[in-house]
């Protein structure tokens, strides 16, 4: 079926009390794996490309310095691929921009076929965040596209989104923000953190979720809360990476029970990136360690060298540069690179499958209204 906006999926999470994982992808093969895992569980799917992931998919290996042109190319590439995958799929699929940096990046994603966007103005003073987000909401809603805003600052590092200290979201400000901007969902800061080092036995500030959700209800404002930085950082995966030569230190994720408790309190979208990176890294290390012939393949040898140079690294974009183009597009004739693709897909499916079950989204595809962008645009207009 055609790609759908995020809004009807958000409405379903609110109505039926489950959460939907939103999984970050940097390539077509990862997108295929995310969709296949959701199909297996008849769950709706949210795929997200971060702003700078779009720059990577636009062909810039130095994606942290990605230009708008890189992002435009990348958004078109993943947009076209996911549109096709969705067309052939029995489940509703959303393609969402994660951490849109500015209006131009958001527009690049929408032009490329994304059906939902995040504008991250959380680093700005409140009034400026409201102004930027409102501008995006107006542009996006006219096109039926869903908008996620952010209020409060998470700590941790994710591409160029970083802060030494987190500032929890003020519930009263969150309600004011939703009212003034008209966002469909809001990312809040309540104890999660981007990356693999989140601290031991993290306890989430569930009261913030409850306070925002209750107050939105009382004010008659639609809004679902989004949990960024929510990877569980499975110990069994990190340990295996380190047994295979990796040096990931101090790794700790959000405990599953903590996440489950906030789903009931009002979190409907849960962002996962780190866990995917970890599972893919373990699988590639395992493949390289178990295949002596890999050392004779120049591309695989170069990947192994990059992994050895930075054993602490677990972002596939860092060490897959020697096969970057085929990784992004999924096109290759090299049988060993195909083997690597298979391992990447298996890693993605292991994480995604686990979380579809844990977050309660098994079977969610039947609960989500498949609304077209045109119909969604009309609904926004009627309600404005
Ligand atoms: P993790 O680093 O915990 O996977 O968080 C990802 C995220 O929030 C993407 O926006």
How would you summarize this macromolecular structure in one to three sentences?
The protein is of the alpha/beta class. It is built from 16 helices and eleven strands.
Overview of this structure, please?
By secondary structure, the chain is an alpha/beta fold. The protein has one domain (7-234, 250-274, 351-377): Aldolase class I (TIM Barrel). Helix content is 51%, strand content 14%. It has 16 helices and eleven strands. It has helices spanning 7-16, 28-40, 51-57, 68-87, 103-112, 126-141, 171-181, 206-219, 235-243, 256-265, 274-290, 298-309, 316-319, 324-329, 335-358, 373-383, and strands at 20-24, 45-50, 93-100, 116-119, 146-151, 155-158, 161-163, 185-188, 193-194, 224-227, 267-272. The strands form two sheets. Strands 1-2-3-4-5-8-10-11 form an eight-stranded parallel β-barrel, surrounded by eleven helices. Helix 2 links the parallel strand 1 (20-24) and strand 2 (45-50). Helix 4 (68-87) runs parallel beside helix 5 and helix 9 (235-243) packs parallel to helix 11. The longest helix is centred in the last third of the chain and has 24 residues, at 335-358. The model has no long low-confidence stretch (mean pLDDT 95). Bound molecules: 1,3-dihydroxyacetonephosphate (13P).
